């Protein structure tokens, strides 16, 4: 049995006392165990602040970028082994596992090249120097300085590789040491990755710590220059935000939480069009990829009322092709959900939605044994792709409130819906999107420029990202669920109000903007360009 260890104070430590199991969700077999009880987390944070922070701040952006490049290379070298671990501990298909592991190495490499471009600088200038008096000498220059604290990263169970290393990439490039904590249930791949980079990458002492399991008293030791970047459920996010606000000096917090993402089919799109096919392909991918356990997966599918039945029929046909089972069995295209608790929650969520929507495919029952490939009867946490239809979009309040974190989405009509709504259909679609109270991403499929403009300006502020698929980009657009390092990831409202990535924008969280006022000549010498 593998026993996970935590890397604190530049050494690997084992926790004490009762452990928690890490399970293979396809078989129910325990793969590893871990505990973090008894570990000196306070000392680890102090070490990161006092040893790791100064070491990273002494490096230029190019040097920090080189560390990220080394991490990306080291992890890529172990890619096949990491994919196997992800398939075992996450129930991921090979494609899902690659999505997670390659997402990690790709984001590290992207931020490595940003570091190279930023070159010898150690911090960022923010805009130009502004004259502050009648003479030219007295100026104000804004700079962004790395916070002299430690960044605590708390991650969700669904992206143990990407979630861990996309945050590490930005933090290290900014010059801030990290203590990262994966979700306990799926920590195995993140632990293996941490071991690889700590053994092979010659990271500065104190720059990376790894807590392999429950947070214990972690948040009680955060101080005024520390940061908390959290990804997970809205419920835990609120709790941690409150705890961080209550800490002395109010710790800066970024929350990436639940999201009721939408796909919106424009009124101009007809069955058989290029973008009709792209729409179906993306919706199906979002339901099936990672068994729907993706924060960016579509949960609400908005279609013009006159195409509702066509869309439902086409989605049912596509989803009927999905082969559910143990991802290691040949032909399987969708694995189990990651844990028994996740299965319980997904089933309870479908029941909740079905009070206001009709289940037209799948549902809460375990798929029939004969339909599950490579699975021992009664074993594993399996659920079928599930599609619901709510014929009155606004009245289906649960659909806009409750995220079922599994292979499940609800189709909703706009325009001519049974609630009798009329008028501007772009406004109507945008209003329905907004009922989700803030999402990570919405995707709109249309060739109608005016309609898109109307929709975009109204739905935009309710989303962190809006993807507009028209015929000219339908075959080259990345899938809507894919987060890219160059674009902001996060969303307003219930999505947590956070922002990650987005190229240089990602560094904002880890740095303090300081207005330095003084003699232009002197500031130029100290800061560079003032
Ligand atoms: P979760 O139950 O909220 O747990 C998330 C993390 O918080 C885990 O590492 C968990 O640790 C930790 N945690 C829980 N209670 C804590 C406490 N009192 N103090 C410190 N840490 C604590 O969420 P999840 O089930 O892992 O993830 C699924 C959710 O994440 C979904 O709702 C999904 O939408 C959301 N998500 C959002 C994004 C995004 O970028 N917006 C990305 C992925 C997932 P333990 O595992 O040790 O309990």
Task: Describe what this molecule looks like in 3D.
With 530 residues, this protein is α/β, with parallel strands linked by helices. It has 13 helices and 22 strands. It has helices at residues 41-57, 61-77, 79-90, 94-118, 162-174, 188-200, 234-246, 274-288, 308-319, 340-353, 425-434, 449-459, 520-527; strands at residues 2-3, 6-8, 11-13, 20-23, 30-34, 124-131, 138-146, 151-154, 178-181, 208-210, 227-231, 252-256, 261-265, 298-304, 358-361, 386-389, 408-414, 439-445, 463-469, 488-489, 500-501, 511-519. The strands form six sheets. Strands 15-16-17-14-13-18-19 form a seven-stranded mixed beta sheet, with helices on both faces. The protein binds NADP nicotinamide-adenine-dinucleotide phosphate. The site of NADP nicotinamide-adenine-dinucleotide phosphate has 29 residues, from helix 7. NADP nicotinamide-adenine-dinucleotide phosphate binds next to helix 7.
Write the layout of secondary structure elements.
Elements: E1 2-3, E2 6-8, E3 11-13, E4 20-23, E5 30-34, H1 41-57, H2 61-77, H3 79-90, H4 94-118, E6 124-131, E7 138-146, E8 151-154, H5 162-174, E9 178-181, H6 188-200, E10 208-210, E11 227-231, H7 234-246, E12 252-256, E13 261-265, H8 274-288, E14 298-304, H9 308-319, H10 340-353, E15 358-361, E16 386-389, E17 408-414, H11 425-434, E18 439-445, H12 449-459, E19 463-469, E20 488-489, E21 500-501, E22 511-519, H13 520-527
Parallel strand pairs: 1-5, 8-9, 8-11, 9-10, 11-12, 13-14, 13-18, 14-17, 16-17, 18-19
Antiparallel strand pairs: 2-3, 4-5, 6-7, 7-22, 15-16, 20-21
The structure holds NADP nicotinamide-adenine-dinucleotide phosphate.
NADP nicotinamide-adenine-dinucleotide phosphate binds at residues 154-159, 181, 183-185, 213-215, 231-233, 236, 239-240, 256-259, 295, 403, 405, 440, 495-496.
